[in-house]
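User: Just a sanity check before I run the rest of the batch. Below are the structure tokens for the first item. I only need the designed sequence back.
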């Protein structure tokens, strides 16, 4: 299971990926995790943005996705990192035939289950997370 996967942060996406990575811009003012918080985190972290450790979609150091085990994705619809998970899920499922399960939580912000723990959707998220772990 990938929970809050930071697979790709697209400050300046490569042209071939730009159309697939809209959530970073679309959700830049999202509740709980907005662009300012992401910028603050990465400014403090100061990663090598060309490193494959920073982004699986680095043009300079490609990472193989072959042979991965089945992956369960739970993705927040209002999360700025949403599209990184969706693109990765589609890629490993179609190109590498990795079995995947995808659940999208439309209209919910990044890490909603932590901030809205009493909501029924948060209970469901945690149940599915426990079953997949």
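Assistant: Here's the designed sequence for the first item:
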């Amino acid at each position: 299971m990938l929970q809050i996967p930071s697979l790709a942060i697209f400050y300046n996406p490569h042209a071939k990926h730009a159309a697939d990575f809209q959530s970073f811009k679309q959700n830049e003012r999202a509740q709980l995790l907005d662009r300012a918080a992401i910028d603050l985190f990465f400014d403090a972290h100061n990663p090598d943005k060309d490193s494959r450790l920073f982004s699986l979609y680095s043009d300079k150091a490609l990472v193989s996705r072959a042979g991965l085990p089945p992956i369960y994705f739970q993705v927040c619809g209002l999360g700025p990192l949403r599209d990184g998970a969706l693109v990765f899920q589609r890629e490993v499922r179609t190109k590498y035939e990795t079995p995947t399960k995808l659940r999208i939580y439309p209209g919910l912000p990044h890490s909603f289950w932590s901030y809205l723990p009493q909501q029924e959707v948060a209970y469901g998220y945690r149940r599915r997370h426990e079953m997949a772990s």
